[in-house]
non-specific serine/threonine protein kinase (Apostasia shenzhenica), 633 residues
Amino acid sequence: MFVEMLRSCSYLGPMFLLFLLPFLVRPFAASLEATTNPSYIQCSRFSHCGGLPNVTISYPFRLLQSPDYCGYPGYELSCVENSLTINLEGQNYTVKNINYDDRLLEVVNSDFLGNSCPHSFTNTTINSSLFDFSVNDSNVTVYLNCSFPLSGDLVQIPCTNNLFGKPNSYYKVEKGASSFLGGCDLTAVLPLFDSAANSLNISNSTFAADLQQGFGLSWVNSAPWCKDCMDSEGICGYNSTAPTAPTCHCPKSTALGSCPYYDRAGLGHFSRRKSTIIGTTASAAFSLFCISLCFYMGWQKSFYRIVTFGKKSNKEVVSIESFLKKYSSTSLKRYKYLEVKKITNSFSDKLGQGGFGAVYKGSLNDGRLVAVKILNDAKSNGEEFVNEVASIGRTSHVNVVSLLGLCSEGCRRALIYEFMSNGSLEKHIYSEELRINLGLDKLYQIAIGIARGLEYLHRGCNTRVVHFDIKPHNILLDQDFCPKISDFGLAKLCLRKDSILSVADVRGTIGFIAPEVFSRNFGVISSKSDVYSYGMLLLEMVGGRKNVKLYAEHSSEIYFPHWIHEHFHESECLREIGVTVDTEEMAKKMILVGLWCIQPVPGDRPWMSKVLTMLEGSVDDLQIPPKAFSSSP
């Protein structure tokens, strides 16, 4: 109705429009106060637990009953009967406090609460990719039902005689690593705040009460962008399809880093009265602007286009700009779109087309050749752009493609890479002529180079990267056939060691996706998922064909990994795939390593560092692995 009134304004007199002004103002002002983003609403609902009214539950934590996008995977809390708990490696701990400034979670073993003497003791174990023990913790080692009498610096536990029927149960307070003593039925290490540990050193009379003081955990997942998000009236969150992105849930939209200026009139720091004043002022100016337009413009369609407000693309532009200012490397040069157009000679030389856009050949002012990827905004939603910049913008390795620059101008986004004159590995292994010219010895060196690049991404760079789309098409070859891992649009970043990753939707390339990505029954998703893809890549390099052959004389030949597993020791079968006497040892190493890498259970696959050792060692040191499974995902 509002739009129809505007469309007909060219037929109305100025006095009548002034009469309509209050009615135009009122609904527009109200709309500015509305909170319409479901993510913002849902995460706001589950921010407290009754037993801890002064503790706000926010990123990286979330309550189990809240949606996944409210917190980082692994930091789920439970609120049952007004008690806030967290499960760490199968043991429940009651949360006493959360200090977001110091990133400190204060917890106590739930079994210790309400007992004058603890009835069970278990080792305290944590997932080091999520938590570290606090520097303010000491270790209390408990020795139960020991065969030796009290001695040395051991202190007797006062209440265990009634529980276990034996008086020989002790504890020892240590600041560093715990000691192990033989001759006891159970030894358990319990972290404890230093203040409570000092009390135990003075006297054992308050043993149970001191254990109930608990201990501290510092969480690993630091998010410096979260303060900016909260300062802009947003709620920090998580996006499973782009875990590396600084996701900020705003009252009307979800942004990157912080809420745009036009999405800050929600429930955060402004009162309803202030929101109304701001909304009224803005809408009054807007209405006067509309009246002026009505006088000077006759075409309703043009008018409607001008008053269209707050489109998604504008929000994405603001979010991308915020991300680039905070997270892009200073070594990356930023280009204007006209400069990109000049570099590519108006996009005249197209190298290829990918899922998120086209790639063009170009030349910088210094004469260096480059490959320019123009991202398809409709498909990528900015996610691939953020993933690429965040994952390889700060990496430097001979086997990882170099990102030289970027362009983000409005909705136009481009990434500029070093140019690879020999194209992708794909065309060299599936073409019989090119594969023969390249030779298996060169393919073997390429395989080692790819392994080194992956090992660097998983272990060697500042932020560990899991690629999630290793395949021949994404391996580029320079003029010397040195391989470079490229296309990080699906990559995920992990903060520490080999983090367990959460991926909500299955993406990647069929035939190279690890089985755990399809079904968690196989195990958790981690860098071992890249190892699987690398194994499939190795087998295709040796076989010179895709692992799944749709047209074959025998059903056993349809899936190459099974065929090669069955015929590994038959030299004539190796000859069928072009393996000669001189290259047989290299081929066998690539086959065996590939078969180990595609084991269905992630824990049975080697790390990339082990893969390198296997490839560079002797084939006599390698065993043939168990057969994987009957079909490939």
Observations:
- Residues 76-219 form one domain.
